[in-house]
Write a structure and sequence with these properties.
The chain is 9% helix and 40% strand. It is mostly beta strands. Strands 3, 6, 8, 9, 10 and 12 form a six-stranded antiparallel beta sheet that branches. A four-stranded antiparallel beta sheet has the order 1-13-7-11, with no helix packed on it. The chain has a three-stranded antiparallel beta sheet with strand order 2-4-5, with no helix packed on it.
Length: 173
Amino acid sequence: MRISMHPILRNIAFSAALALLSPFASAAVLNFEDIVGPDDIAAVPGNYGGLDWSESGLNVITSEQYPFTPRSGNGRVTTDWIDGGPVSSTIRFVAPTVFNGAWFSGFGDSSVRFDLYFQGQLVATSAELLLAEAPAFLDAGWDSLIDTVVVSSGFQASYAMDDFTFESPAQVP
């Protein structure tokens, strides 16, 4: 005997199942371990991890450097020291996705935040994270689609970012 379910009930059941499973969805994590350069420093390639880093101005460091403690492994990214003033790094997603956040460490007199954009419009700004030597996670604070993340700090070369985390576009409905 076959039991059939009304299409509306079937859709509700399917949606409920997806909602229950969504906390278990795996995220893509870029840990910068696979970028190696001379003297333990290298520019982030323009298409690293399937994202557009060409306007980020970020470099990967793999050697021990105080207070830039890595969250995992040795790779993490930081900005160049140019004039010491405020800095922002733009990272673009090839396809709209959900950005979760990243881990940061750095000088305690500085902070970082995310500005999140979708189709050229600012849709959210994260909380500010006061930096410390011990890595801390900065949550994006937004669970909808974006296509651009701007990482902002009051001082250049004041932070290191590690374990950049987002839902891969294939996982985003």
